[in-house]
Amino acid sequence: MRRRETLKEVFGEVVALNPVRPKYGNGIRTALAIAAPLAAAVIFDRHGYHALFPVVGALFVAVTDPGGRYSSRAASVLGAALLFTVSVFVGGLAGYNLWMSAPLLFVWAFVGGYTLGISGAPLGIRAAVLFAVAASRPAESVSDALNAAGLVAAGCGWAALLSLLLWPVRPFRAIRGSVAALYRHLAETARESGAAIADAFPKQRVEHLETQRRALRDVLTVAVNSTTVRRTNFAVNSPVNQALLLLTLHAERLAVTDIALSESARTVRLSDVQRQRLVAV
């Protein structure tokens, strides 16, 4: 019985869906980034690796865009494009010698996955994949390796142009909206708490304050879920999301402090001067 419950828990976690809205814009933009190099390969009658390299380069750059400030996004996308291009060039040259390509692949994966840190681990994995693909088709000469690297650079450049200029997707817009709504509700709740303290907690004020607190609790739940799900589901943890998560946790502490102050004032007899001082706090 216990084994059956364990298997149920394991498979339940495998098929569980996260409570987040699908990013349709990201999916359509990634599909467009891949479709353009494929269409170019068909038009110019290019097959095999000539079509593979720009498509894979465009795909890897399209999924690298972390969102956030334009400067950080541009640095991430353009840096990834350069890393992928160099990976294909070096992999194509190293492919002729198995004893050289295998250690180089290990070093490439190690440098990308470890030296670049947690945020750079996905870039290292993708660079290692491109290195392995290029090594499986050894370049016949340096010019051939440059040609393959140029194809990857073309695909990466198209995806970078699409991400940065033509179709910039803003993945944090919904999360910023939930955090902003949280602080608006927190300000309204604080005003209601101050009014209730100043009026010595009449029944109508107390009922209105409880309603406002319930609304604040719902908004807080939405903000916490959106920031924490975003943090755990994306390998590239943007500083923007870290800041939003910290703002959400700070708002939660402020809400707890507001409740503690108002409930203390409700249970303890205070003079008018003391009430005015507490309202000012």
Query: Taking all residues together, what is the mean pLDDT?
Result: 76
**Computed structural class:** mainly alpha
In DSSP terms (H or I, runs of 4 or more residues), the helix count works out at 11
Strand percentage lies at: under 5%
Query: Helix proportion of residues, in percent?
Result: over 70%
* Unreliable stretches covering 5 or more consecutive residues: 231-236
Shape: elongated
* Elements, N to C (H/E): HHHHHHHHHHH
Q: What's the structural domain tally?
A: 2
Distance between the termini: 57 Å
Task: Note down, in words, how this protein is organized.
The protein is mainly alpha-helical and 281 residues long. The protein folds into two domains: 22-166, no CATH class; 173-280. Helices cover 80% and strands 0% of the residues. α4 packs antiparallel against α7 (142-166). The longest helix is centred in the last third of the chain and has 31 residues, at 203-233. The radius of gyration is 27 Å and the shape is elongated. Residues 231-236 have low confidence and may be disordered.
Reconstruct the topology from this structure.
Blueprint: H1 2-15, H2 24-43, H3 49-62, H4 70-94, H5 98-115, H6 121-135, H7 142-166, H8 173-198, H9 203-233, H10 239-267, H11 272-280
Helix pairs in contact: 2-3, 2-7, 3-4, 3-7, 4-6, 4-7, 5-6, 8-9, 8-10, 8-11, 9-10
